[in-house]
Amino acid sequence: MKWSKALIPTLKEVPAEADIISHKLMLKAGLIRKVASGLYNFLPLGFKVYYKIENIIREEMDKAGALEILMPILSPAELWYETGRWGLYGKELMRLKDRANRDFVLGPTHEEVVTDLARTEIKSYRDMPKNFYQIRNKFRDEIRPRFGVMRSREFVMKDAYSFDRNEFCSEESYKNMFEAYNKIFNRCGLNFRAVEADSGNIGGSFSHEFMVIAASGEDTLISCSACGYAADKEKAESISASSGNEKEDLKTLEKIHTPGQHTVEQVVAFLKTTPAQLVKTLLYMADGKPVAALVKGDDELHEIKLQRFLGADELVMMTAEQVETYSKAPVGFAGPLGLSGMKIFADNAVAKLRNFVIGANEKDMHYINANFDRDFKINKFIDLRVPGEGDLCVKCGAALSSLKGIVVGHTYKLGTKYSKTMKAEFLDEDGKRKLMVMGCYGIGLARVIAAAIEQGNDENGIIWPMAIAPYHVIITALNYKDEKIKALSDSIYEELKTQGVEVILDDRDMSAGFKFKDAELIGIPVRITIGNKAVNEGLFEIKLRKTGEEFAVKREELSNKVTEIILKEQVK
Amino acid sequence: MKWSKALIPTLKEVPAEADIISHKLMLKAGLIRKVASGLYNFLPLGFKVYYKIENIIREEMDKAGALEILMPILSPAELWYETGRWGLYGKELMRLKDRANRDFVLGPTHEEVVTDLARTEIKSYRDMPKNFYQIRNKFRDEIRPRFGVMRSREFVMKDAYSFDRNEFCSEESYKNMFEAYNKIFNRCGLNFRAVEADSGNIGGSFSHEFMVIAASGEDTLISCSACGYAADKEKAESISASSGNEKEDLKTLEKIHTPGQHTVEQVVAFLKTTPAQLVKTLLYMADGKPVAALVKGDDELHEIKLQRFLGADELVMMTAEQVETYSKAPVGFAGPLGLSGMKIFADNAVAKLRNFVIGANEKDMHYINANFDRDFKINKFIDLRVPGEGDLCVKCGAALSSLKGIVVGHTYKLGTKYSKTMKAEFLDEDGKRKLMVMGCYGIGLARVIAAAIEQGNDENGIIWPMAIAPYHVIITALNYKDEKIKALSDSIYEELKTQGVEVILDDRDMSAGFKFKDAELIGIPVRITIGNKAVNEGLFEIKLRKTGEEFAVKREELSNKVTEIILKEQVK
Questions:
Q1: Is A98 in contact with B41 (Cβ distance < 8 A)?
Q2: Residue A489 resides in a domain
Q3: A448 plus A476 within the same structural domain
Q4: In this predicted complex, what is the ipTM?
Q5: DSSP bridge partners of A223
Q6: How many CB atoms lie under 10 A from the CB of residue B429?
């Protein structure tokens, strides 16, 4: 491609609407343009990157035996009634009526349609395993679209759905996809981690997120460098690094007047102790029923962990009125001793405490030297904490660290969640009809682009991994009007193209400085400069975008050298 | 691919919903399944064909210098207000509101979005020509979706839009696309014709349709084998083959009582003449104004030609009441003599008539020996007839023939229709701001598949052109449980794959007859049969789907022979 024939509208100024680096650079480098809130055009350069990622995904999915299909975006409401997601999904689900007033959904994912396909076409255990995938537009009416294509309302997703005859085979299919995902993100040249994750809206038994590591990432992952354990913050389990005081003798329980002291900080200052020696009692309504959760004063309750443990559809903190009703005291004085009408769950770290402070369910009163079992009963100790830096790994006990990342893929072990509600059955070898066991697997293609930029950039612009760069090579012709420079540039351009090198020739009538800036901004891995030095001395300057390394090669070495650089950087 | 790993749910029975051969075969061969009215899943085999067509299109578009982009399907209503299509499009346009109650359209085409892109990013004449395309889902809420994927409500379209600095350059861009389309449909292996067509809803100055010739086609094209002229029925001009009687002397006009005779047949029988000697007077309201159109009694008025000539947004036949008001007579007796308050246009064939019959604008009365100029005035003679078999070519005078076909592509010279309403301007070389001149170019990918099947099928199933067949070769292993047959089949399967041959191995535990039937049904061009004959005699039977030709080759010749057949059939 010659630059003059392309459309690469680079910008000098950072557009005001952009808040993160990938969004800024995608606009500046002319990869995308906004159409409306959360809706973007991918311009030719952006499309090239998108299409490379699409092809890497397709190749690896095909290699993994998945079957590509195409399902309509318009998905009839009837299927969504069957799974109940019509009611559950809320406003994020875009809905419309056709001319006959029938309800349709713009698919945000395609479990309903693909399960309908499977229950019709898969009849016997012999027909499985099957894994159907498509690469198409998805729609989610985000309440606050942001970060450019990272959280947009329409986006291309590769979504795959596996169908198996039993749990064991389904786990094999899951592992197969897990490996395919590792290959895909490796081939894209990304530094990423596969982490255990929460299943969220999609549901199912377990899931992994594929996170591209980037300091600017909006997600946090907790990982153990010793044993490799990694999970997103919402899912991560950990052991509190504080050892507790479980060896201490039990002291005598005492009720103390703590006038006006109701935050952890106030109470521990007043009682001259530490947050680690206080136990907070947090009161919730889970699907309309009261429940109490205890965590140490220096820990934070992880609501999702509590909700998941309870299997509740809805978990909300009690209102001040509800707190008064159940604890018989104003907010700030609830405690497990004397609390009735609800179950009490405590975080594992509480189990190591003795002689701690708790609320007394009475205005301005706390107990000191409280102890579970002796003074009150805990229904169960479970993991309820938000894991923190310095916590210990539940698998190996080593120290955990936290990293920022961007989720680009998500795999879910769905079990029979959808096949049950939609009656997706098959005839098994033993002659019995059974439910298919499902998995689903998504990759957000635009997110991969944005994450690659978050991971690869400097003050001058984007630094693409070779595999997904829009072009491998940019030829910067310093003065293309000069006949000799033009002839030389054109001949090298043609030669490289013949060798399968993807090359863009900057043939614009612009200054060298301007062209160099644009080349850096759009992040092409290899730059070849052609000016008088090339014409007169036969020396071609090569500059590598990633390292900044510069060197000159002779004409006859040029294309071999370039091919070598490209091959070295491509992950196969 | 091994058949057992694929999903190819062939059907024995023709599904009741299908009315045309391509729809029947696409269902029977397991290419598609219906999701809802006008909405289809493309199953793996159908997707393979789709994807081959997509790639042929992409390659030829890229070669033609067009730039691939990706525009959102959700398109903000504001852009549609600008062009007025929000109001004009009617119920076919699918509309929805987002959570903030803003109006959006599911793009049926993308003129609005792409013109908005062009007016923002194309600034100077130096930035043109530009041609942007995408290959994505489109939406049209057809009142009666039918013929399977041929007329569905969601379909993938390649839509391209060219922007040029003036008419001359725009025509160059048009020609460039016209050539690319010829290459695309040639490479797809289709027998097609590019025909002049009406611009319809999209508007603009001229257009071509690319029609795949098939007896079952819903469109008619008129073509001249002598000079190559071809046009669709709505657009075709022609010369009536009847020579008329223009040399006759003018006879005396007479008013005749024709009681109760008001159809052409009744009147000519009563007057003992022929339909060719009668002139029908048809009364219309064009945008609310009355107009009369005259055609010979044996010709049919082509309403679209009249409407286009008048430049009317709406053309409707007068109601009986309106006929009485304007002609002062009941329906069936209108005539040009004495007709006032409206213009009168006549078909060119009327110009050759003398002494003909017309209505007298009086109940039960006709004139005989009427003549224009002498008795009444014609405002203009124009082409108003539906062309018929046997008509003569307007370009060379040779006889025209009509063919049935299926429209798979459409190119439009848009002029400044959209750039004017949307103010898509650029700075020209002379320092003046001018409107960009546009063209647009569409291909319906699913229509290409259906048309290929309409053109290529027999009583046993589909006959694919090599270039878009889902697989080049099917290996029918007669008894795959037999160790020797399995080993031989697998080794040939691997060998062919290594050579880049796309091959499916039918490894199912089914009878030979069943497998042969399925192979014919899904239409794979080359079948290799592997049974005892192959194992014992080293002879491999090859059968070609298209010709039915069968022959045997030796092991060592097999892959060369297969490659040779494939190459011969591929259009490059």
A1: no
A2: yes
A3: no
A4: 0.85
A5: A230, A401
A6: 10
